[in-house]
Design a protein that fits this description.
This protein has 18 helices and 22 strands. With 606 residues, the chain is α+β, with helices and mostly antiparallel strands. The chain has three domains: 94 residues, OB fold (Dihydrolipoamide Acetyltransferase, E2P) (Beta Barrel), CATH 2.40.50; 264 residues, BirA Bifunctional Protein, domain 2; 130 residues, GAD-like domain (Gyrase A, domain 2), CATH 3.30.1360. The chain has an eight-stranded mixed sheet with strand order 6-9-10-22-21-20-17-11, with helices on both faces. Strands 1-2-3-5-4 form a five-stranded mixed barrel. Helix 5 crosses helix 15. The chain binds one RNA strand of 77 nucleotides through strand 1, strand 2, strand 3 and helix 2.
RNA sequence: GGGGCCGUAGCUCAAUUGGUUAGAGCAUCGGAUUGUCGAUCCGAAGGUUGAGGGUUCGAUCCCCUUCGGCCUCGCCA
């Protein structure tokens, strides 16, 4: 075999005169009857091969039969391209290889889509033929960036004394949290392992074991419906540290993230990353992961709304709801139907009952800024001025408002703010606004179950001064949790953990996890805490989302080599699939047909 | 489990209120071609309109069912 002496992307003008061998895929061929040109592709780039019928007629004859995606080896002399024939778009564009020997290493079927094609190809086809899709330089570069991120992370943690330690993939199922993927046990019939949702308990136990500093780049599994930015199996950069408070965890890990953005994108992010409380984030952005690339903050106008005569607002306030809104700069350009059909549908889909609006314009007679809309008449001139002041509204702005329970209002307005920010071009994709969101509530009240739920997870420590509230006011305890947010995307989150078994027990009580349940589910872990657990804390970063930001894609499948579809299938391997009866027998499992299938069977049988 | 968009040649798309033989570009195949680089020129082939059913004289188009892809709500301690 003609074995390469260098890669396709390598040769330069300085290599002229050398005889080299390259291997790669035929990217394109241009047959002029006389000369034949081949662009040969490997991971490093493209190089032009030239076949001359006069000097090497046999080689030229074979070259004419080459087709796209065939795999070849070519030996020849590097020579400069003639005057005016350089290709500035190729790194190797100054030179070409005059081929003297050619070996076809493999032929290829015509690919289902063009690697070079400018037209975008449907994702279904790309996933079916992922190996061809990945040949596209855009895709390879995403894989490369992902590799570099993990490499930077490993080097960083290693140099700071962290050990990478693997934790089990076959673990114990815990019913709270996301749905588990279950794996039947052959040796213990009727019992199941669960794939880890995260290595949470194991990494904490490693702290009890005096590992002191742990990290792992680890696959996690949550059997929930996918979204554009999440799928059932994903990768975390998982970290845990002993004898630390939240401050140290944040400083240690933000340095890595900033280094990654610097090395991959050349972006300079000042340290330390700023912090914002959960309360402020929810108040001003309606969500705990604010996009700080643009302003357009939400404003609460409950007080003004309660004084007006617009019944929708006053009734909502009477029932304990709030009224919040945002001011869209230059938003008066939106038509009434944009607002009353488009935006209103957008917020009602998110649970809001409606969307109130004002356009800001000068009064015809006084020339003073006022509010125009069908509901303006319910607001006195003074109230209108109060609103304009509150929203810092200017001429031609648009004020949009939602009235409802606080949770509903925020849930509708936060996505609306982001949608408008993107539409108005306020979201610069080259800008990265980092923020630590801190002071999360430890619990949130679960109305349906009549109990508290952990906002983060049940092992998150309360802030010390709020500890007494465990007895008196659990709903207002702040936790020592922190989320790292970039441009409205949560890329990591963690906390200082509870290391006191008594506090842990109290938290379980509030979550209405009985001692028996706690023992059954986390007994091994609680026991470990009793044998001298150091104060410890950690964090986990979503590698997939981080790489999405670094590669400027909003599709998680673009940053995973072999991703799953919306319905959890791998279109390449066609997983999941049925299995042989003998496999089921070994596991003592029986597959039950769906109810509707059984009904149909009964019908056809009778 | 709910809502929305989509499915036509290998790929990306078109096809008038429901009306002749379902078209185009790229790819493919054949031929031509003296330096191209998204080569060019000439020609050819390529279709169960995702599948099944219904309405109709007639369905890519309307209706129902179903499969698949994407987005989203719920869900994601």
């Amino acid at each position: 075999m003609l074995k390469r002496t260098q890669t396709c992307g390598q040769p330069r003008i300085s290599d002229v005169g050398q005889t080299i061998i390259v291997n790669g895929w035929v990217n394109s061929y241009r047959d002029h009857g006389n000369l034949v040109f081949i662009d040969l592709r490997d991971r490093k780039g493209l190089v032009q091969l030239v076949f001359d019928p006069e000097k090497y007629p046999q080689v030229h004859k074979i070259a004419r039969t080459l087709r796209c995606e065939w795999v070849i080896g070519a030996k020849g002399k590097v020579r400069p391209r003639g005057q005016g024939m350089e290709n500035p778009r190729l790194a190797t564009g100054q030179i070409e290889v005059a081929v003297e020997e050619l070996e076809i290493l493999n032929q290829a079927k015509t690919p289902p889509f063009e690697i070079d094609g400018s037209a975008s190809v449907g994702e279904e086809t790309r996933l079916q033929y992922r190996y061809i899709d990945l040949r596209r330089p855009e895709m390879l570069s995403k894989l490369a960036i992902r590799h570099r991120v993990t490499k930077i992370a490993r080097d960083y943690y290693d140099s700071n004394g962290f050990w990478e330690i693997e934790t089990p993939m076959l673990g114990k199922s815990t019913p709270e949290g996301a749905r588990d993927f279950l794996v039947p046990s052959r040796l213990y019939k009727g019992s199941f392992y669960a794939l880890p949702q995260s290595p949470q308990l194991f990494k904490q136990i490693l702290m009890v074991s005096n590992v002191d500093r742990y990290f792992q780049i680890v696959r996690c599994f949550r059997d929930e419906d996918p979204r554009a930015d999440r799928q059932a199996e994903f990768t975390q950069i998982d970290v845990e540290m002993s004898f630390v408070q939240s401050e140290e965890v944040m400083r240690m890990n933000e340095t890595l993230i900033v280094r990654i953005f610097k090395e991959i994108l050349g972006v300079n992010v000042p340290l330390p990353i700023r912090e914002m409380t959960y309360a402020q984030s929810v108040e001003e952005y309606g969500i705990d992961r604010p996009d700080l690339r643009f302003e357009m903050k939400l404003k609460t106008i409950t007080d003004i709304a309660s004084a007006c005569s617009f019944k929708v607002f006053t009734d909502t306030v009477k029932k304990g709801g709030i009224v919040k809104g945002l001011c869209v700069p230059g938003g008066a350009k939106y038509s009434r139907s944009d607002i009353e059909v488009g935006f209103t549908a957008f917020v009602t889909d998110l649970g809001a009952k409606g969307l109130a609006w004002f356009k800001v314009a000068p009064d015809e007679t006084t020339g003073k800024l006022g509010l125009k809309s069908s509901i303006a008449k319910f607001f006195t001139p003074e109230q209108q001025q109060q609103l304009i002041t509150k929203f810092e509204a200017k001429n031609d702005d648009l004020i949009l408002m939602v009235a409802d329970e606080a949770a509903t209002v925020n849930k509708a307005l936060a996505p609306l703010r982001v949608k408008l920010g993107k539409e108005l071009g306020l979201c610069d994709s080259n800008k990265f606004e980092f923020v630590w969101v801190v002071d999360f509530p430890l619990f949130e009240w679960n109305v349906n179950e009549n109990r508290f739920d952990s906002l983060h997870h049940p092992f998150t420590a309360p802030v010390p001064e709020d500890l007494p509230k465990l007895e008196t006011d659990p709903g207002h305890i702040r936790s020592q949790a922190y989320d790292l947010v970039v441009n409205g995307s949560e890329i990591g989150g963690g906390s200082v953990r509870i290391h006191d078994p008594q506090v842990q027990a109290k938290v379980f009580d509030l979550l209405k996890i009985t001692r028996q349940q706690a023992q059954d589910r986390f007994g091994f872990f609680l026991k470990a805490l009793e044998y001298g657990a150091p104060p410890h804390g950690g964090i986990a970063f979503g590698l997939d989302r981080m790489v999405m930001l670094l590669t400027n894609t909003d599709n998680i499948r673009d940053v995973i080599a072999f991703p799953k579809t919306q319905r959890g299938q791998c279109l390449l391997s066609e997983a999941p699939s049925t299995v042989d009866q003998s496999q089921l027998d070994e596991l003592n499992l029986r597959v039950q047909k769906h109810l509707h299938q059984m009904e149909e069977k009964e019908k056809s049988g009778s």
